[in-house]
Amino acid sequence: MDQTSEVLPLLFETILKEYHLVRLFFARGPGSFMAIKITYIFLKTLSITLNIPLLACDGFAFNEGRAIRAMRNLYFIKEAEAITTVRLESPVEQHFTLPKVLDETLFTNEIEPLYMLPAV
């Protein structure tokens, strides 16, 4: 598996050659502290450089609201609008998928990353 810091520039190099971007959307967490931070900084910089909006939602929008692994047996869960952590005895499969059509109503201007756990 490649590192976020290595993949993002290559991915966007290809995207920018083929498409004219008018908005950027991303999942602001919860998840890997470093991956979220790198993604946020990269996309915020791109948003400023291209003068286009950056919009975000939480990662639960892409995994049918299932628990998201934080570390070992600690998972993030979302109940109503609150995201907390719980310890689960059995592992939860981590399946994230992008929809064929993006529901823009899930995204807001609230783009600060969801740093739910301290950096390790």
UniProtKB/TrEMBL annotation:
InterPro entries assigned: ATPase_NBD
The protein, known as: TsaB protein, required for threonylcarbamoyladenosine (T(6)A) formation in tRNA
Species: Sulfurospirillum halorespirans DSM 13726
